[in-house]
Every structure is written in C-alpha cells, then in structure tokens.
Amino acid sequence: MTYDRIRTDQGTRPKRAFPSWVALVAMVALARPIAAQDSGWLPQMVPMDSMAARTPFGPGEHLVYNVKVGIFNVGQGHLTVEGTDWVRGRPTYRAVLGLDGSALFFSMSDKHTSYFDVHTLQSWRFVQDLNGSYTSFRHYEFYPDRDLWDREDNDEFGPMATDFPIDDVSILYFVRTLPLEVGDHYTFDTYSYFKEEGTPSR
Q1: How far is CA 45 from CA 56, 58, 60, 125, 141, in A?
Q2: In DSSP terms, which residues pair with 99 in a beta bridge?
Q3: Once rounded to an integer, what is the mean pLDDT over residues 163-169?
Q4: Which of 190, 175, 172, 6 is nearest to 80 (CA)?
Q5: How far is the CA of 15 from the CAs of 18, 51, 73, 197, in angstroms?
Q6: What's residue 51's pLDDT?
Q7: Does the first or last residue of the chain, that is N or C, have fewer Cβ atoms within 10 Å of its Cβ?
Q8: What is the pLDDT of residue 127?
Q9: Quick one: three-class SS letters along the chain?
Q10: Do the Cβ atoms of 139 and 127 come closer than 8 Å?
Q11: Cβ contacts of residue 134 below 8 Å, gap of 6+?
C-alpha cells in the first residue's frame, strides 16, 4: 500500500452498495480531529508493558471527527482505544471506529472493532457491524502462524495474503507510529484485506 502526502490509497476493493466509510474516515482521521479527550494513560494509571511497541496512543484516547461527502457534513466518526484485551494469550489493544450519520439516500450507524497486538501491532481479530442503508456483520479471526483467516459468523475461512495482517482500523494506529513527513512517499507490503481476492494493490 502507498501513502503519499499523508493520504491512504487502498487500491481496488470489493464493490459495495455504498461508499467505503472506513476509507473516508481514514483520510479524515489522518487530517483533523474536531475534538479529542486526553487519553490519561499515565504509567500509574495503566500498567506499562516493557515489551510494548512505542506508540503515541493508549487506552482511553478518544478522537471525534466530522464525516463529509464533498463539502457536506453527513455525520460524525470517532476513533477510540477502549482498553486492552487478551486474544489467544496475546495482549491486544481494543480499538473502535464508530460512524453515525445520514444523507438524502443513505444512513449509517457502523462499528468496526480491531484487536491488535500491543507488542507487534498486527491484528488478531476484526469485527465489523454495519447498520443503516447497508447492513452487514463480519467477525474475522487471524492465524498468521497457520496462514489462515477464519470468519466466525459464517464458517468461511481461507489462506492469508500476508503473515502480518493489519485491518481497516489498526492501519490507522500503525501509521501513527511511523515518522511520516509531508510530501514523502511510503510503500508498505503489510496491509491486507485477509483474502487474496480482496487484497489492495501494493
């Protein structure tokens, strides 16, 4: 995947009945939050893991954004690091991207939850719950050591396109750990949509 001037380009994705609000908010999230709460993740409040990746975020961070289509405000989105959880013995951040809004021909009340590794930042679980004009529920578990993704809600599974899965939410946090410079060009081979046929162009 390529980042150019702090923009995301996720390449070709499966067609949907409505725009990819994840991609839209990804661009907004990297640009300008309209409100932010102090994460408050001081060492005395949150046990520190000496093996954790160095990050500019932590449990309790809550960012709020306007969601726009062109010049029109259609709702709000938020990115929240709700806390930490364990997934199959691995410590993970539980991060949520929430989207709420409506316009003339659509409405949305979507929630995307990522469980990504505190140490490596790779994703172990991704849950997508879309409600509104377009509805969908997907629950993915990732097993990179077994070269397997498993969709829990319908028993679908298959080989992974990468050994370092990063989902639609954890990619936003992964990018924030990088020393990006405006105007520079960055290419990564780690981002995948889990399936070969859905993997963005690199």
Answers
A1: 16, 11, 11, 26, 30
A2: 77, 110
A3: 89
A4: 172
A5: 8, 40, 24, 12
A6: 83
A7: C
A8: 96
A9: CEEECCCEECCCCCCCCCCCHHHHHHHHHCCCCCEEECCCCCCCCCCCCCCCCCCCCCCCCEEEEEEEECCEEEEEEEEEEEEEEEECCEEEEEEEEEEEEEECCEEEEEEEEEEEECCCCCEEEEEEEECECCCEEEEEEEEHHHCEEEECCCCEEECCCCCCCCCCCHHHHHHHCCCCCCCCEEECCCCCCCCHHHCCCC
A10: yes
A11: 16, 17, 18, 106, 108
pLDDT at position 19 is 43
Q: What gap in Å lies between CA 190 and CA 122, rounded to an integer?
A: 9
Distance CA 160, CA 164 (A): 9
pLDDT tens-digit series, residues 79-123: 999 999 999 999 999 999 999 998 878 888 999 999 999 999 999
The strands making up 2-4's β-sheet, listed across from edge to edge, are 8-9, 2-4, 185-187
- Please state, rounded to an integer, the average pLDDT across all residues of the chain: 77
Predicted pLDDT at 201:
38
Q: First vs last Cα of the chain: how many Å apart?
A: 4
pLDDT in tens, 26-77: 444 444 565 555 444 444 444 467 788 889 999 999 999 988 878 888 899 9
